[in-house]
């Protein structure tokens, strides 16, 4: 006998476009949901803005304004607002992050690490060419498609603290934007955002790919022996004027002979099936109610303090 068919219950649809299904992650500015885009009928990732101040709201608005189109860059494909709830829609990436992969496998084969570094440098080259500095390049922001034991496919995501070079800075005062351990030396001296800082962070990521060890702030990075060492060392040059650009580093990388070694790790599909409709309808309703209350409170505070 076949199992009984599940009854779908009314779902939450934001601005008539994004039908929220289930929460799949939490970011610095809110929660990430699996959703259906009513315009395309396809599944997407929907980032729902959580409690925020004016700076967080501005970052959210700037992120939705980014329209950098490249296979290895993950930026919003659309946005919607409805009853004080704001959401960004973007591709649903199902293979987890490079951080998760490293936690499971430890050091990656140099040939596999070289492919990931190639794709990261491709992404940074196009981002920098668009006049944007990412400012938070790290394994947790590098998403992976589920490619099994084949070649990896990386997407640079989370542009929440990215800044256009021609625009006003989002951070004022002495705060340093980024993640400790991936910050270039000049960032600790409160230097203005510059693409060379993303290049340095890519060098830190490359070291982590090869060693399996995350950076430890205050301790020197040890680049292992091998064909990638000279390039990674150049990315990590303490003098930002001596670091190659992302595009130049990509050209150098492609001239390096890195023979295939292995075995390569497996990147699985990490997203579980969507929950039964009766379960996710209640979850979505609670999540949206909390987000709406937080947004209203923040808006009231901004009015009173403005």
Topology:
Layout: E1 12-14, E2 18-27, E3 30-37, E4 43-49, H1 54-65, E5 78-82, E6 85-90, H2 98-105, H3 110-129, E7 132-133, E8 142-144, E9 154-156, E10 163-164, H4 195-211, H5 229-235, H6 246-254, H7 277-305
Antiparallel strand pairs: 1-2, 2-3, 3-4, 4-6, 5-6, 7-10, 8-9
Key features of this structure:
alpha+beta, 7 helices, 2 domains, 33% helix, Phosphorylase Kinase, domain 1, six-stranded antiparallel sheet, 306 residues, disordered C terminus
Which of globular, elongated, flat, extended, rod-shaped describes the shape?
A: globular
Strand tally, please?
A: 10
N-to-C span: 64 Å
Uncertain regions spanning at least 5 consecutive residues: 1-10, 280-285, 289-306
Strand content bin: 15-25%
Count of the domains: 2
Q: Would you state the CATH class of the largest domain?
A: Mainly Alpha
CATH superfamily of the largest domain: Transferase(Phosphotransferase) domain 1
Radius of gyration computed on alpha carbons: 21 Å
**Mean pLDDT across residues:** 83
Structural class: alpha+beta
Biggest sheet architecture: 6 strands, antiparallel
Q: What is the topology, as strand order, of the major beta sheet?
A: 1-2-3-4-6-5
Description:
- The chain has 306 residues and is an alpha+beta fold.
- The protein has two domains: 81 residues, 2-Layer Sandwich (Phosphorylase Kinase, domain 1); 147 residues, Transferase(Phosphotransferase) domain 1 (Transferase(Phosphotransferase), domain 1, Orthogonal Bundle).
- 33% of the residues lie in helices and 16% in strands.
- The protein contains seven helices and ten strands.
- The strands form three sheets. A six-stranded antiparallel β-sheet has the order 1-2-3-4-6-5. The chain has a two-stranded antiparallel sheet with strand order 7-10.
- Strand 2 and strand 3 form a beta hairpin.
- Helix 3 runs antiparallel to helix 4 and helix 4 runs antiparallel to helix 5.
- The longest helix is centred in the C-terminal third of the chain and has 29 residues.
- It is globular and about 55 Å long.
- It starts with 11 loop residues before the first strand and ends with a helix.
């Amino acid at each position: 006998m076949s199992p009984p068919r599940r009854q779908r219950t009314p779902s939450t649809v934001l601005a008539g476009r994004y039908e929220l299904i289930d929460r799949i992650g939490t970011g610095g500015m809110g929660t990430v949901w699996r959703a259906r885009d009513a315009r395309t009928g396809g599944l997407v990732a929907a980032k729902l803005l959580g409690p925020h101040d004016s700076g967080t709201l501005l970052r959210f608005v700037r992120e939705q304004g980014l329209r950098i189109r490249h296979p290895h860059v993950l930026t919003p494909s659309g946005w919607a607002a409805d009853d004080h709830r704001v959401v960004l829609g973007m591709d649903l990436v199902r293979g987890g992050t490079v951080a998760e992969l490293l936690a499971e496998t430890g050091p990656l084969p140099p040939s596999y690490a070289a492919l990931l570094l190639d794709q990261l440098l491709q992404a940074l080259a196009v981002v920098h060419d668009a006049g944007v500095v990412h400012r938070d390049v790290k394994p947790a922001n590098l998403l992976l498609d589920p490619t099994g034991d084949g070649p990896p496919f990386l997407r640079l995501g989370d542009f929440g603290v990215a800044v256009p070079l021609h625009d006003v800075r989002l951070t004022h005062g002495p705060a340093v934007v980024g993640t400790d351990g991936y910050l270039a030396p000049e960032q600790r001296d409160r230097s203005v955002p510059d693409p060379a800082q993303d290049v340095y962070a890519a060098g830190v990521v490359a070291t982590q790919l090869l060693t399996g060890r995350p950076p430890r702030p205050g301790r020197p990075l040890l680049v292992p022996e091998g064909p990638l060492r000279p390039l990674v060392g150049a990315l990590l040059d303490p003098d930002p004027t001596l670091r190659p650009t992302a595009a130049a580093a990509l050209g150098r990388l492609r001239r390096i002979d890195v023979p295939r070694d292995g075995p390569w790790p497996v990147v699985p599909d990490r997203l579980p099936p969507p929950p039964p409709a009766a379960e996710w309808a209640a979850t979505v309703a609670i999540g949206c109610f909390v987000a709406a209350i937080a947004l209203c409170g923040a808006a009231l505070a901004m009015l009173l303090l403005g």
